[in-house]
Design a protein that fits this description.
Helices cover about 25% and strands about 30% of the residues. The N and C termini lie far apart (about 45 Å). Strand 1 and strand 2 form a beta hairpin. By secondary structure, the chain is α+β, with helices and mostly antiparallel strands. The protein is elongated. The protein has a two-stranded antiparallel ribbon. The chain has two helices and two strands.
Length: about 90
């Protein structure tokens, strides 16, 4: 997922994520096709329609976790401008 950091709420959520205060997800879906193993009673979802994904403080599924949060600062600032300058220098007229 991606946060639009121009929005105040997104900046707040980003801060909570980077400090580990929010780390769970809620994933809403409509199940289209599944099967149940009769021995283990485990359900396998074969097809589902994703409805929503939300960041939550306490998720119902302990495996639905946010594993990493990317740095909000670009690793290569002005990369397109720099590439254009390089291409211009390489171009023979």
């Amino acid at each position: 997922g991606q946060l639009i950091l121009d929005l105040p709420k997104a900046r707040e959520v980003y801060t909570l994520l980077t400090h580990g205060l929010i780390e769970d997800l809620s994933i809403g879906y409509v199940m289209k096709q599944c099967s149940i193993d009769q021995k283990t009673k485990e359900r396998t979802i074969h097809e589902a329609e994703l409805v929503e994904i939300s960041l939550v403080t306490f998720g119902a599924n302990p495996e639905a976790k946010i594993l990493t949060v990317k740095d909000k600062t670009p690793k290569f600032p002005n990369i397109l401008e720099r590439l254009e300058k390089i291409i211009q220098k390489l171009t023979i007229y």
